[in-house]
Write a structure and sequence with these properties.
The complex is a heterodimer of chains A (122) and B (240). By secondary structure, chain A is mainly alpha-helical. Chain A contains five helices and two strands. Chain A folds into two domains: 9-74, Orthogonal Bundle (Arc Repressor Mutant, subunit A); 77-121. Classes of the chains: A mainly alpha (122), B alpha/beta (240). The interface between A and B is medium-sized, with 19 and 25 residues.
């Protein structure tokens, strides 16, 4: 995987895991790959992966069970909040870009509903 | 990072005011650097910046002109050679050798050579013991050399340009082998100018320019501070 954002790698890995949780690809209670496994898969220093896991734990998105590994929280409210926070970020950056292109709110609404319809027909 | 294992305070490598001249050419100019155990440190710089000179001093192949180099608390010598595993940037095996001969050669020379680990690395790299050194491609050479070097149970691995000139598949295998063999009780110092390919491996990075350190720090902290990947910082420093 390529890390292209101008963000520290540990944050990019946190975001990667958060989106997998938001999309339901990883569910509440699921075990995350071990630090070493993920380190191999992403070709990233194990200390960096460790840091990502620690930060996710601090945000209460995952928890560690001694000797067992790292697991996604079973708190459904937590996962719901995570999803809506991520949605908020995506919408926010979308709106910023559209405004930069000179679209006003009504135009944006029209464009969005038009495209949602198109996508649904497909 | 904050992983278990005591003795985090004592660095594995301590370099103080290190200079090296080749006659009147300065190759290294007043280098100060310390490497903690369990860290992977990238030494970054273009050709001729002094990377190989630094590594050769750590490996005990060159003597400094000035300054002090301590590895595990000892001056470079017989003891440090027994705990430093060095990957040169060129071929170091004899032409008459097969891979098996190279393995025996390492076993004779280094008491910490782990033949079982070497076997696993050979399998991983898809190399056969019967292959002759002369029949290997550049990528295979690099893989064999790295397999030998990583099979030692060393405290410090110094790898000089481990991925220079190999194809992308071999490069990935080499990166995998380095990650697989990482452990928190040993440190690695890796030189490269292929920053994009290797930067995610490093805990700390050191930028070397004309024999001096122009920037150093924790890789993640630098990304955060500069809002750039290490590769972009490299281009900024060496670009002009």
């Amino acid at each position: 995987m390529e890390f292209n954002d101008n963000l520290p790698i540990y944050i990019q890995i946190m975001n990667l895991i958060k989106s997998s949780i938001a999309s339901g690809e990883i569910r509440g209670g699921d075990k995350l790959p071990s630090v070493r496994e993920l380190s191999k898969k992403l070709k990233v220093n194990p200390n960096t992966i460790q840091r990502s896991y620690q930060e996710l734990e601090r945000e209460n998105i995952v928890f560690t069970q001694r000797g067992m590994g790292t697991f996604v929280t079973e708190d459904q409210q937590m996962i719901k909040d995570l999803r809506s926070n991520m949605a908020k970020d995506v919408v926010h950056s979308f709106l910023m870009k559209m405004k930069k292109l000179g679209f006003d709110s009504n135009e944006i609404m029209d464009i969005v509903s038009e495209w949602i319809e198109k996508e649904e027909i497909k | 990072m904050d992983r278990k294992g005591g003795n985090k305070m004592k660095p594995i490598v301590e370099i103080k005011d290190l200079s090296k001249n080749y006659f009147n050419k300065k190759a290294l100019d007043n280098i100060n650097l310390s490497i903690q155990s369990g860290k992977v440190v990238g030494v970054l710089g273009p050709n001729g910046s002094g990377k190989t000179t630094l590594i050769k001093i750590l490996a005990g192949l060159l003597r400094q002109s000035k300054g002090e180099v301590l590895i595990d608390g000892h001056e470079v010598g017989v003891y440090t050679k027994s705990i430093v595993s060095y990957l040169p940037d060129r071929n170091f095996l004899y032409n008459w050798m097969s891979i098996q001969d190279a393995c025996d050669f390492y076993k004779d020379f280094y008491g910490d050579f782990d033949e079982n680990r070497f076997k696993n690395l050979l399998d991983f790299m898809k190399l056969e013991r019967t292959m002759k050194v002369t029949s290997l491609s550049k990528g295979m050479h690099e893989k064999l050399n790295l397999s030998l070097v990583l099979s030692r149970d060393a405290k410090l691995y110094v790898l000089d340009e481990p991925i220079a000139g190999v194809d992308p598949v071999a490069r990935d295998q080499i990166l995998d082998a380095i990650i697989n063999n990482y452990n928190e009780n040993s440190s690695m110092l890796i030189t490269t100018h292929l920053v994009r390919d290797m930067e995610n491996l490093f805990d700390d990075v050191v930028f070397l320019k004309d024999g001096s350190i122009v920037l150093e720090g924790n890789a993640e902290a630098l990304r955060e501070e500069k809002g750039k990947q290490i590769d972009d910082i490299y281009k900024e420093i060496f670009g002009e």
